[in-house]
């Protein structure tokens, strides 16, 4: 984990919202093609619709979260799915307790 990258990724309200939505995706999204959103994740088109932004902006936000290690990706066919990396998020919490 690179704390600076994590905090940069978290410095945007929409990216924070994405992380919140991915915590309990069934509350915020309709399953895409029968995909288990907890196990596999949420498709970029679902995030795009929820953000009410362009797909390129949503993809950029997801990419930033992914590079920071906050989310994982899984490719199934032509779709990429995103879900939270709960282990990294726990590490961030521990880091904050110890370092700040």
TrEMBL record:
Name any one GO molecular function. Answer: DNA-binding transcription factor activity
Q: Which CDD domains match?
A: HTH_ARSR
The reply on keyword Transcription regulation is yes
Task: State the superkingdom.
Answer: Bacteria
Q: Which UniProt keywords apply?
A: DNA-binding, Transcription, Transcription regulation
The residues covered by the HTH arsR-type domain are: 1-100
Keyword NAD, does the record have it? Answer: no
> What name goes with this protein?
Transcriptional regulator
Alphabetized Gene3D superfamilies for the sequence = Winged helix-like DNA-binding domain superfamily/Winged helix DNA-binding domain
């Amino acid at each position: 984990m690179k704390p600076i990258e994590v905090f940069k990724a978290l410095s945007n309200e929409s990216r924070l919202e994405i992380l919140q939505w991915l915590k309990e995706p069934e509350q915020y999204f309709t399953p895409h093609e029968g995909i288990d959103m907890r196990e596999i994740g949420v498709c970029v088109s679902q995030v795009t619709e929820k953000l009410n932004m362009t797909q390129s902006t949503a993809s950029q936000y997801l990419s930033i979260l992914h590079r920071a290690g906050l989310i994982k990706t899984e490719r199934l066919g032509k779709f990429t799915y995103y879900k939270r990396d709960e282990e990294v998020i726990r590490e961030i919490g521990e880091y904050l307790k110890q370092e700040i």
